[in-house]
Design goal:
By secondary structure, the chain is α/β, with parallel strands linked by helices. The chain has 15 helices and eight strands. An eight-stranded parallel barrel has the order 1-2-3-4-5-6-7-8, surrounded by eight helices. The longest helix has 26 residues.
Length: 314
Amino acid sequence: MTPLHELVAAGQSPWLDFVRRTLITSGELRRLIDDGITGVTSNPSIFGKAIGGSTDYDREIESLASDRANHDALSIFEDLAITDIQMAADVLRALYEATDGRDGFVSFEVEPRLARDSAGTIEAARRLWARIERPNVLIKIPGTAEGLPAIEQVTADGINVNVTLLFDVEAYAGVAAAYQRGIERRVDAGEPVERVASVASFFVSRVDSAVDAELPEDSPLRGRAAIANARLAYERFREVFSGDRWERLEAAGARVQRPLWASTSTKNPAYRDTIYVEELVGPDTVNTMPMSTVDAVRDHGVIHANRIASGTDV
């Protein structure tokens, strides 16, 4: 058993924050799943590095670019990325089925330029969901004020959502409420909710990077803000997904919108390279890690169940 398996046993899903064509075709993704990885996240930056930093896609790009009437740069990117997402989802499909739709997901993001466009985000999410055509895909929507109506609507549509770019606990509470409203609409309409999945991506290490920059070098508070902030978000999660309102939805088969800890690579070399994993272990959570952090956790991660609730000092 690897420390990644220990995370799963503790109720947390370890996901890989990386995707690339050869990760899938080489069998490496399958080996990572055997080691305990249970999902994959992506973003435009990850795809940009994968496409621009390798020759994996060159032949396909040339073929697509030759049809200039139907393929501009954005559509070429989308064609390439969606193929990778579909392939990764197919590799993870057995895990999705084995966990009754709880795990085995791959995330794909709507265009970042739609972050302030509710109607555009809804249209894009519906289009991507239909085009990817995999039940174990999450459509990533930014957790902006304009994103909230989109989160509610596409959840009501039965589309799986990964709400991204959350830093503030109150912003997270608004996202969780939007998800619940979408689920309520499905329940009230007699639509199934058992396989509607959602996560709320709360960014971690970037908080320390910002706060530490404002603190003296010898401050005992350095390296503490990010984990403290995540713990407050987890407390709010447990509050929001309890009580009569949620219990009615849960009785209909609804699942909680799990907090997902993102940006969990350690930016400051003075901190333990697994700190943002080890300190945030808790039931009904996800931790998405870049490959370097996955390797560190597999090698020397120390996993304690429910550390997020029982931990004291970092």
